[in-house]
Design goal:
single chain; globular
């Protein structure tokens, strides 16, 4: 059954939203390759993804991306679905956000998607259908205090999404961005733990700082983001391109 489905590559597929997306694509019989920097995390994810393969890759490094994607294409054929879920979030007041922090997030959150998209597009252009999905954030659409570098990179990722969508509008390839709000992943759990450690606040109070942003008063489940992506990669969504699809419980309207 999988032979009829396009090969899907998910960067950052070892955990969080990326892993949820990889599971959804595998469940729909797509051949799936997950990519990431942490070999242990990739190996753990593969235990939840029967039939999938993994490739260690640093998306910030163009040569690493090209080598990993070439190997993946040899195993499963040309990439028909590219999901750029790899990302890093660092918070700090603007005044103390060093160049190293800006550089790290720029290279991973923005250039990572540039490197992967550039590598897959030549072969993807020859397919009957192609999909590029960039996992952005509500931070691509609004600002957040103490997250200027993160918000700037996510705004840039959305700009890339919209511009590339226009370049490819005459092809069978669509390019869209998913913009989830605060999501129940390790990033939020680590942030809650950091708040507790630094302020002495309870875990419940620390978590409330994130759930309060969502009018529904909760974190987004990674599976909700994955379900939205499942529609975007379907033939029914061929007219949806250049869009920022918000999954945030009404935080942004």
């Amino acid at each position: 059954m999988s032979a009829a489905k396009p090969h899907a590559v998910v960067t950052g597929g070892g955990s969080g939203i990326g892993l949820a997306i990889a599971k959804a694509l595998a469940a729909a019989w797509h051949p799936v390759t997950i990519m990431g920097r942490n070999e242990d995390r990739l190996a753990s994810a593969l235990r939840e993804l029967p039939g999938a393969t993994a490739a260690r890759c640093d998306v910030a490094n163009a040569a690493s991306v090209e080598a990993a994607l070439a190997a993946a294409a040899e195993r499963h054929g040309p990439v028909g679905i590219l999901v750029n879920a790899a990302g890093v979030a660092r918070t700090a007041p603007f005044a103390t956000s060093a160049d190293a922090l800006w550089d790290e997030m720029w290279r991973i959150n923005v250039l990572g998607a540039v490197h992967t998209s550039r590598a897959v597009l030549p072969a993807m252009r020859g397919l009957e259908m192609g999909r590029i999905i960039n996992v952005a954030s509500t931070a691509a659409l609004k600002g957040y205090a103490y997250a200027s570098a993160y918000a700037a990179t996510k705004h840039a990722l959305l700009g890339l999404t919209r511009s590339l969508a226009l370049e490819l509008a005459k092809t069978a390839i669509t390019v869209n961005a998913l913009c989830p709000g605060y999501t129940d992943t390790d990033i939020i759990r680590d942030a809650v733990a950091n708040i507790v450690a630094k302020t002495g606040r309870s875990e419940e109070d620390a978590l409330a700082a994130f759930t309060a942003a969502n009018p529904q008063g909760r974190l987004i489940a990674p599976e909700e983001v994955a379900a939205t992506l499942s529609w975007l990669v379907s033939p029914a969504a061929r007219s949806i391109t250049g869009q920022a699809i918000i999954v945030a419980g009404g935080e942004i309207m």
